Amino acid sequence: MELISPTDFAKEKVRSVQEYAVLAAQSIGNIFRRPLYIADMIQQADLIGFGSLRIVLAAVFFTGAALALNSASSLARFGAMTVIGQLVSVGIVRELGPVLAGLVVAGRNASGMASELGSMIVTEQIDAMRALGTDPMKKLVTPRMIATVIMLFFLTIIADLMGIFGGFIVSFLLLGLNAQQYWTSAYQTLVFQDVFMGMTKPFFFGYIIATVGCYYGLSTTGGTQGVGRSTTQAVVASSVLILTVDVLITRFLMVVLGKAA
Question: Residue 172 contacts by C-beta under 8 Å, 6 or more apart in sequence?
Answer without folding.
Answer: 179, 182
